[in-house]
Design brief:
The chain has ten helices and eight strands. It has about 290 residues and is an alpha/beta fold. Strands 3-2-1-4-5-8-6-7 form an eight-stranded mixed beta sheet. The longest helix is centred in the first third of the chain and has 18 residues. The two termini are about 25 Å apart. It is found in: Mitochondrion inner membrane.
Length: about 290
């Protein structure tokens, strides 16, 4: 069974009982349906925390340096999940012809990296300032002159209805841990709605464990000051099992789960069998 963050809220149960007992009230049905439809996965305070880092977003030695170095492992992970091509047959743009949605793209660190490999990238984020930064930075990247990412300021639940079944790949890297627990299913379902049948979703996120509480939160934020204090809320972290269940009950098959480890001293990421700190997950949408 899933842990308590994924239990149906009591308010939803009450609404369901109310709806079943009042079929003669279409106005009430529409009102309650609209309320659920306009649920938002966005936490304005969390968005502002990241927006405040705008001036340092592309500083590879600043507070976002771990995210920059993360590209060295997460981009190959995404590439190999989308296209299975022998190393000897690879070109410099192995993702050419692949459409990819980068959810929570921020200032475009991952979006640009995927676009350089030839992917047709759409990046979305709830921060208008970071989307503007992403557009400005990619416009100045000479490696992207022929393949600029497209950026849009909106949350995934607003993007999904008009882009159903559009993308070959959806990436949600370092974002689901910032979504409130009672909104995680809406977030995942919205991501999957945009994915083609047979397409793949890629997620990276810290694991909810005592180890991550010490390293990702306490050490990184309060001792080494690698990221600003208050960036993470440990209670929003997930375990690989929880995320697997969440994906599979929404029409996916989880193909791979890998552990991740970050070296604070060398600023390098590596894959590992141990998922107690952080993990990367790949799943395919059922046809």
């Amino acid at each position: 069974m899933l842990s308590s963050p994924f239990r149906l809220p009591a308010s939803s149960i009450k609404h369901a009982k109310l709806l079943s007992s009042l079929p003669q009230e279409p106005m009430l049905l529409r009102a309650l349906g609209a309320q659920q439809k306009h649920q938002s996965t966005v936490d304005p305070q969390d968005v502002q925390k990241h927006t405040d880092l705008k001036s340092q977003w592309w500083d590879t030695t600043g507070p976002m340096k771990a995210l920059h170095s993360f590209n060295h492992v997460r981009i190959p992970f995404i590439r190999d999940g989308l296209v299975q091509i022998p190393v000897k047959e690879r070109t410099t743009t192995p993702l050419c012809g692949q459409s990819v949605l980068d959810v929570g793209c921020g200032g475009g660190i991952l979006s640009e990296g995927l676009a350089q490999l030839g992917a047709k990238v759409t990046g979305i984020d709830a921060s208008k300032e970071l989307i503007e930064l992403a557009r400005t930075h990619s416009a100045g990247n000479t490696k992207l002159q022929e393949n600029q990412p497209t950026y849009c300021c909106c949350p995934i639940e607003e993007h999904a209805p008009a882009h159903t079944g559009l993308y070959d790949g959806v990436v949600a890297s370092e974002i689901i841990e910032h979504i409130d627990n009672d909104k995680k299913e809406l977030f995942v379902k919205s991501c999957l709605d945009t994915l083609k049948p047979g397409g793949r979703i890629f997620l990276t996120t810290p694991t909810r464990s005592s180890l991550s509480k010490v390293t990702v939160v306490y050490m990184a934020e309060y001792v080494l000051n690698i990221v600003p204090r208050g960036t993470h809320d440990h209670s929003k972290f997930m375990t690989p099992t929880e995320l697997t269940f969440l994906l599979e009950r929404n029409g996916c098959h989880v193909e791979m789960v890998l552990g991740l480890c970050y070296n604070f001293v060398t600023n390098r990421w590596t894959f590992t069998k141990n998922t107690s700190l952080q993990f990367a997950l790949q799943a395919v949408k059922n046809a």
